[in-house]
Backbone:
């Protein structure tokens, strides 16, 4: 298949995909989407979404097309924006299988899927990625401060196109850390209210007129 694209969305809407859309009745609607255009640069909304993400799924494929998906996680802010179309993150040492790195060494095409379960939002990013494992300064600059993990290398991801999905069928889930913080705030408020109630009970009752 040729890499020549008329629209940014052609990275996903290949001729085969468009043929199926036509057969199943959605081609006209998605032709309008093509005209409006998928985004190819990071805007303020995407930047804010990525800054709040602590997890995403990273897809690559071998030279013969065998797909592989790997989870990547870290504290909020571990995904860094380098320029209008490039994001990067420190790649932490793991099980040392190196499937993702092996795939990228022979096929740079990659895909990032970021899910926000709490607000039922998802973002899809198509692009090309490469591993940088010989730049300790860059690796250290991308390492989240205070995070207890060993950075092994950096992955740079150049965005070709990105899009959002509707919230259909996304189960609503909340991070355990957010739940814990909400419970602490709730308990603090309960303690405050109990103190106010005790103080009110200790005050003499106002005299009532007969």
Residues:
């Amino acid at each position: 298949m040729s890499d020549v694209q008329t629209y940014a969305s052609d990275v996903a809407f290949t001729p085969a995909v468009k043929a199926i859309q036509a057969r199943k009745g959605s081609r006209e609607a998605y032709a309008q989407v093509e005209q409006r255009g998928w985004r190819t640069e990071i805007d303020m909304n995407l930047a804010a979404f990525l800054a709040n993400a602590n997890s995403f799924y990273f897809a690559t494929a071998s030279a013969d097309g065998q797909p592989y998906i790997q989870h990547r996680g870290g504290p909020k802010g571990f995904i860094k924006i380098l320029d209008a179309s490039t994001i990067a993150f420190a790649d932490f040492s793991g099980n040392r299988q190196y499937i993702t790195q092996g795939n990228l060494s022979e096929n740079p095409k990659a895909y990032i899927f970021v899910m926000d379960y709490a607000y039922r939002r998802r973002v899809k990013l198509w692009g090309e990625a490469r591993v940088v494992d010989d730049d300790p300064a860059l690796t250290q600059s991308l390492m989240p401060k205070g995070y207890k993990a060993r950075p092994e290398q950096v992955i740079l991801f150049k965005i070709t196109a990105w899009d959002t999905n509707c919230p259909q069928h996304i189960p609503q889930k909340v991070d355990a850390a957010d739940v814990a913080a909400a419970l602490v705030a709730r308990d603090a408020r309960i303690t405050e209210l109990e103190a106010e109630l005790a103080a009110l009970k200790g005050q003499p009752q106002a005299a009532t007129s007969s």
